[in-house]
Amino acid sequence: MNGDSQVILAAHEVGKSFGSLRAVDGVSMSVTRDEVFGLAGPNGAGKSTLFNLLTGIPIRPDSGKVIFDGHEIQNRSPRWIAKAGLKRTFQTEAVFESLSVLENVRIGSAYGGAGKARRWAPARCREALDAVELGGDPNRPADGLSLIDRKRLMIAGALVSGPSVLLLDEPAAGLDPADQDALIRLLAGVRGTGVTMVIIEHVLSVLEALADRMAVLDSGRIIVTGRPAEVLSDPRVVEAYLGPGAAR
Ligand SMILES: Nc1ncnc2c1ncn2[C@@H]1O[C@H](COP(=O)(O)OP(=O)(O)OP(=O)(O)O)[C@@H](O)[C@H]1O
């Protein structure tokens, strides 16, 4: 097997402008199978826009290519991309509060993934709940869930269709340190099931704990890629977060 066949998701010179703002400015990156890849960078750097471009939700790149599992996907529909096995979560927990925990996971299963019978199997939904360690009665309403449990539920909804790659947008946002640790444990467990992950995160300790490699974006461009310890001590990264001269 050559090196490239290990790459499951790649961006080649991907770009997107909003009017005169180049939000993503020619980003190239590649993620290998079974890897956890972190994305960090200051507010407005273009991280979420990059996720949007990788998944086609709700926008497409205006330049460059996205390759997922050997397919060029930048012009594919979000549904096609999800069915092919590339799923994502959002910064805000998308939980339907009037529905039960189980029904929320079923909604995730309706979008992408394996054959119909398998998708709608309650057993499959329960497996996804187990994978995120969300115990208790699956028929209870979702509106009473704590923040970490809402996050677990959103991740279960993304996992239930059996994606090969999961993109997580700031999963640790708003969590206290104990819940951050719980999140790290559950994502390590998800990784153990063979799901490749790309994680946008401002809580850098989460990336230090989980990521094999990470990249830092600034003004729409990747400024450094490497192992978390190397990246986070790089003077260019310190300057991107704290301003010019901060690293001196
Ligand atoms: N639909 C849009 N229309 C216009 N500008 C947009 C749109 N989406 C994003 N932007 C702009 O693109 C830039 C990148 O935004 P993006 O949300 O990708 O940054 P981010 O790195 O994810 O930031 P944060 O860490 O705060 O979530 C910002 O200047 C933002 O205001």
Report on this structure.
With 248 residues, the chain is an alpha/beta fold. 35% of the residues lie in helices and 25% in strands. It is built from ten helices and ten strands. The strands form two sheets. Strands 6-7-8-3-9-10 form a six-stranded mixed sheet, with helices on both faces. Strands 2-1-4-5 form a four-stranded antiparallel sheet, covered by helices on one side. The longest helix has 16 residues. 43% of the residues are buried. The model has no long low-confidence stretch (mean pLDDT 90). The structure holds adenosine-5'-triphosphate. Adenosine-5'-triphosphate (ATP) binds next to strand 2 and helix 1.
Features:
10 strands; ABC_transporter-like_ATP-bd; 248 residues; binds adenosine-5'-triphosphate; 35% helix; ATP binding; alpha/beta; globular; nucleotide-binding; P-loop_NTPase; 4-stranded antiparallel β-sheet; 6-stranded mixed β-sheet; ABC_AA/LPS_Transport; single chain
Tell me the layout of helices and strands.
Elements: E1 7-18, E2 21-32, E3 36-40, H1 47-55, E4 63-68, E5 71-72, H2 78-84, E6 86-88, H3 101-109, H4 116-119, H5 122-131, H6 147-159, E7 165-169, H7 177-192, E8 196-200, H8 204-210, E9 213-218, E10 221-226, H9 228-232, H10 235-242
Parallel strand pairs: 3-8, 3-9, 6-7, 7-8
Antiparallel strand pairs: 1-2, 1-4, 4-5, 9-10
Helix pairs in contact: 3-5, 3-6, 5-6
Bound molecules: adenosine-5'-triphosphate.
Adenosine-5'-triphosphate (ATP) binds at residues 18, 21, 23, 41, 43-49.
**Count of individual beta strands:** 10
How much is the radius of gyration in Å? Answer: 18 Å
Given the structure, what is the number of helices? 10
Mean pLDDT: 90
Distance between the termini: 44 Å
Strand order of the largest sheet: 6-7-8-3-9-10
Summarize the biggest pleated sheet: 6 strands, mixed
Q: What would the principal axes of the Cα set say about the shape?
A: globular
Strand percentage: 25-35%
Please estimate the helix content: 25-40%
- What structural category do the secondary elements indicate? alpha/beta
Low-confidence stretches: none
Ligands, ions, cofactors:
adenosine-5'-triphosphate
Q: Helix-strand pattern, N to C? A: EEEHEEHEHHHHEHEHEEHH
GO molecular function, one term: ATP binding
Pfam families: ABC_tran, BCA_ABC_TP_C
Protein name: ABC transporter ATP-binding protein
Organism: Streptosporangium amethystogenes subsp. fukuiense
